[in-house]
Amino acid sequence: MDLNKKFTPETWPDHPERATLEAKNKFVGFWLFLGGETVLFATLFATYLALKNKGPSGFGFSTQELYQLPLVFVMTMLLLTSSLTSVYAMYHLKNYNFKKMQLWLGITALLGLAFLMLEVYEFVHYVGEGFTFDNSAFSSAFYTLVGTHGFHVAIGLVWITLLIFRNSKRGLNLYNGTKFYTFSLYWHFIDVVWVFIFTVVYLMGVIG
Amino acid sequence: MSSVAQKKGFGATLWDWMTTVDHKKIGILYLAGGGFFFVLGGIEAMIIRLQLLRPNSDIVSAGLFNEIITMHGTTMIFLAAMPILFGFMNAIMPLQIGARDVAFPFINSLGFWMFFFGGLFLNISWLVGQIPDAGWTSYASLSLVSEGHGIDFYAIGLQIAGGGTLMAGINFLVTIINMRAPGMTYMRMPLFTWTTFVASAMILFAFPPLTVGLFLLTFDRMFGGNFFDHTMGGNTIIWEHIFWIFGHPEVYILILPAFGIFSEIFPIFSRKRLFGYPAMVFATVLIGFLGFMVWAHHMFTVGLGPTANAIFAVATMAIAVPTGVKIFDWLLTIWGGSIKVTTPMLYALGFIPSFVMGGVTGVMQGAAPLDYQLHDSYFIVAHFHYVIVGGVVLGILAATHLWWPKMFGTMLSETLGKVTFWFFFIGFHMTFLIQHWLGFWGMPRRVWTYMDGQGWNTANFISSIGALLMAIGVIVLVINIIITTVKNVRVGNDPWGDGRTLEWAISSPPVHYNFAQTPLVRGLDTYWIEKSEGNESGITPAEPIQDIHMPNGSIIPFFMTLGMFIAGFGAMYRVETSWGLSALIFGLVLTFVSMAVRSLQDDLGYYVKKDEILRDLKRKGGRK
Q1: Smallest Cα–Cα separation from B373: which of B441, B420, B296?
Q2: Among B83, B326, B369, B437, which is most exposed with the fewest C-beta within 10 angstroms?
Q3: What transmembrane ranges does the database entry give (chain A) (predicted)?
């Protein structure tokens, strides 16, 4: 593959993310990886549901009292919007508009960062109330499920930051096109997982 | 990266193996690593049988016995059986589909190193003297109260090795989906490729639960988590569910590739195409699917209730149907064939009755009410050794003889091979057949010793002698390998003379780019078709001779894994030692920096030039 090959929007392939065999491999492999990740989160969800509100005798925390829906709603909006902005970035990827793609990926990362900071705030707040990781089975399961998601967001932020800066000078080619595309797949995936966390952990916790 | 053999110093050779991304070399690495752990697990098995040879024996203490059975099970499943099968998948599957490498050569190397370092991590527990002792299933009620770092070695070691397995699974899947040669449709794929495909799909969905389970166990033991501690609201049954949601598919991950190996051997040595190929494929997929539906049959006596038990009992028995389809297909492949009883064929013939017996006892245990009687008795030990040894290990030994010439270019001695088979086969039945009765007579599994006068003495004595015969068989195999390697008699492309699939159409061992020209696949058993039409080259090329794109070697996988290995020790010792925390941080930094380097570096591979390919063809007739 020639990294210096110059494209125009007209010569740029319709599906740059799977234009070469290597790219196709990454594309399929990443989808399969997300399949495995789904099972991983499913296991964490099942564990959480089994241990929800469970603690030692005299345990004082319950989902109803603990969770604050307004904060979680703002987090949800931030992450959903970041999914939308990553779609804009992919739109520009397909149209060979590198500058705009970088811009929208940057906005995606900022929204993700805002989400993550709110999550850290949320955790710090809970710990301040005495709801620590080792406090009960409920707290262990909560922090592990939501924390694993947060960890995925953090990994995604490091990943996209590296990609943005690594490629800032050289523009799009068929080698890095796949990398941007798989990032967007990943970002959508953690967004979908969050939708489930919002529903199963927070909504069902407060309302259900 | 010339394919011309040059004399290299030890350092250069070592560097070559540490950085290789060639699927054939990684296959050999897996085989060597898995073989090493197989011997280790075998020694542990011998100590178990030595201890149980006579009643009231105290050759090992009760605590040490627990540690040995734990390490025997864990080592054999995770570090011996699976890696050895991965070795054959790596070495042979890409050849069978006409590919020049796997989809992710870098990740392939990473997967190997994670397996190897994970295995080392687990076994370093012997040197530290704090050894896992809660059984290979490590049920949380036992593992949470186990003292020392034994269980931590188990959890972190398997975490590292399991990550490598997951990567290998995804890699094989993508290789088979994307990299088949022109004409290699799904329904023309050799059965070993098919079983690799289904086993890899099972790995993809079975290993993440293990990852989660091991993390939860690590959190509970080392970071104040409360998942399994009922005094803190936890639930110890969650571990059992998570473990078996992984653990049951795991046994199919092991047996399916063995099925694939035998499905290659029967047609070759019966000189007849596989009977019922589509049924075989369908049965493989069905077993893969049902394998996820039956985990709770390991938990009948936990008390999940009659409804749950009934559902899982029926699902369990249903698996006997596709398995039976396979058995009959194999029998009908042999039927009317012109049979050559070579060493691999001997193993295949021995496999059918052995595995059927394991299957029948499996259905017996699938009947939940009967399982209440059999649970935790030696009957269970007999059953799972009949399927694992009678199925998987016989498959591994058969594949070793079958594909040794393809992997190493020399032929293992047939005479010694048959000696190995008879020692191993007789020893195997002697060891485990009698254990069914030991179970009926009430001997519980996992006991350290037993009292005299319970009628168990003779049976245990026979069982231990059988184990000795198996050990002799393995020693003969090792001698065979040494003699063959020293003699170094090179063999041609198709040393068995009746190869049917693409791997037999190219030289043994193949050149590093496998195929000078990508083959055009014209049907099931494509090499057999070419041979029967008198095509001397054995391959109809699908492309002209041209430059071939190949991946670069890399040392990064080694350092990435080394980082995890160091971080594992750091996590374990971070509380009681001063260096623990720094080791944890250093290890994680090493891993993440390696990942960043990999991500930021452009690794575009290189081209094998047309001239070099032509030179290779002239020199050793790589196309012949």
Answers
A1: B441
A2: B369
A3: 28-51, 71-91, 103-121, 141-165, 185-207
Among candidates B186, B168, B308, B188, which has minimal Cα distance to B240? B308
For the cut 60, the answer to whether the pLDDT of residue B153 exceeds it is yes
B198, part of any domain: yes
Q: What is the pTM of this model?
A: 0.95
* Dihedral angle computed from the Cα positions of residues A127, A128, A130 and A134, in that order, rounded to the nearest 10 degrees: 20
| Residue of B177, B205, B233 with shortest CB distance to A28 | B177
Please report the ipTM that was assigned to this predicted complex: 0.95
* H helix runs in B441-516, sequence order: 457-487
| Chain B nearest C-alpha distance from A36 (Å) | 5
The token pair that represents A67 in the structure block: 């969770």
Instruction: Tell me if chain B has a CB within 8 Å of the CB of A32.
Output: yes
Burial class (CB in 10 A: 0-12, 13-18, 19+), B560: buried
Q: Enter the tokens of residue B337.
A: 């064939």
Number of domains in chain B: 1
Q: In chain B, which residues have their Cβ closer than 8 Å to the Cβ of A60?
A: none
Task: Tell me which residue has tokens 């250093």.
Answer: B586
Element (H, E) at B549: strand B548-550
| Token pair of B284 as six digits | 């493989």
Contacts of A3 in chain B (CB under 8 A): 602, 604
How many other C-beta atoms lie within 10 A of the C-beta of residue B468? 17
State whether residue A182 sits within 8 Å of chain B by CB. no
8 Å CB contact of A56 and B233? yes
Please check whether residue A131 is in contact with residue A61, taking contact to mean a CB–CB distance below 8 angstroms: yes
β-strand pairing of B540-541 with B606-608:
unpaired
pLDDT tier for residue B3 given thresholds of 50, 70 and 90: very low
Give the whole-angstrom CA distance, residue B80 versus residue B167.
Answer: 17
Tell me the two tokens of residue B461.
């004595």
Q: Any CB–CB contact under 8 A between A44 and chain B? A: yes
Mean pLDDT of chain B: 94
Q: Is pLDDT of B604 > 50?
A: yes
Angle, in degrees to the nearest 10, between helices B23-51 and B457-487: 150
Q: Say if residue B509 is preceded by a cis peptide, omega within 30 of 0.
A: yes
- Is the pLDDT score of A58 beyond 70? yes
Q: Please list every residue in chain A whose beta carbon sits closer than 8 Å to the beta carbon of residue B233.
A: 51, 54-56, 59, 136-138
**Residue B387: its pLDDT value, please?**
96
Taking residues B520-549, report their average pLDDT: 93
Tokens of A34: 């997300």
Query: Which sequence spans correspond to the domains of chain A?
Result: 16-48+73-206
Residue B7: the pLDDT is 65
B575 interfaces chain A, CB cutoff of 8 Å: no
For an interface test with B, which of A140, A180, A186 has the most B Cβ atoms less than 10 Å from its Cβ?
A140
Query: Residue B203: beta bridge partners?
Result: none
Residues in CB range of B362: below 8 A, 6 or more apart:
B316, B320, B383, B387
- Domain A16-48+73-206: CATH superfamily is Cytochrome c oxidase, subunit III, four-helix bundle (1.20.120.80)
Kindly give, in sequence order, each residue whose CB lies less than 8 Å from that of residue A2, ignoring residues fewer than 6 positions away.
none
State mean pLDDT over B338-367.
96
Instruction: From chain A, pick out residues whose CB is under 8 angstroms from the CB of B220.
Output: 140
Q: Domain of B608: which CATH number?
A: 1.20.210.10
> Would B104 be classed as within a structural domain?
yes
Which residues in chain A are contacts of B604 at CB distance < 8 A? 1, 3, 175
DSSP state of B505: G
- H or E, element range at B540: strand B540-541
pLDDT at site B4: 47
Residue for token pair 């070495």: B91
Could you list the residue range(s) of the whole structural domain that residue B111 is in?
24-554+603-620
Give how far B592 is from chain A: nearest CA, Å. 11
Of residues A182 and B621, more confidence is placed in: A182
B167 touches chain A (CB under 8 A): no
